[in-house]
Amino acid sequence: MLRPFSELPDHSRVWIYQSNRKFSDQEVILIKNQVDLFLSNWTAHGADLEAGAEVRYNRFIVLGLNQENASASGCSIDASVRFVQELQEQLGVDLLDKMNVTFYSGAYIAHKTLLEFRKMAKNKSVSKDTIVFNNLVNTKKDYIEHWEVPAFESWHNRFLS
Q: How many structural domains compose the chain?
């Protein structure tokens, strides 16, 4: 059951998929349409899942699920991953590689491999105050409050000296 992401409760579960490149405006429209279609039909053990999504900064796809009435099961989570894999193939982007880091570089959003980010930290090209995207947040509330944070407040801190 599709809901506007903004109407999902703060305790809703979120999954964040970052792209290795910025989406065009046309791709964002395509993504929104396909995500809405998928979420409209997303179920767990025959029960409709109350879910919503948003595309942020033409780079991140955020799926949210209110688990009060029905929770995602292994099969429904697998279905969402298959859907994201299909999007990935259709758009020619990487959405599932968790070994990449996205952060602000001035006014721009940069995307680097973890190895490149570690080198940048060692060379002081990024610092503890660099704003990073912590895609490991689990709830909508954490997404709102702790997704864009200084590196020292997230798991990225382990790479900073």
A: 2
40 and 23 fall within a common domain: yes
Q: How far is CA 78 from CA 6, 24, 42, 47, 84, in A?
A: 24, 27, 11, 16, 10
Q: What is the DSSP letter of 24?
A: P
Number of other residues whose CB lies within 10 A of the CB of residue 63 = 23
Residue 68, number of CB atoms within 10 A of its CB: 10
* Three-state DSSP state, 49: coil
Beta-ladder partners of 148? 133
What is the C-alpha separation between 40 and 32, in angstroms, rounded?
Answer: 12
Low-confidence residues in the chain, pLDDT < 70: 161
The pTM of this model reads: 0.93
- Residues 6 or more apart from 48 whose CB is under 8 A from it? 1, 42, 70
Confidence at residue 81, expressed as pLDDT on a 0 to 100 scale: 94
pLDDT of 161 reads: 65
Query: Which residue range(s) make up the domain with 149?
Result: 100-159
Residues 115 and 85 in one domain: no
Last residue of a domain, one of 68, 91, 114: 91
DSSP state of 117: H
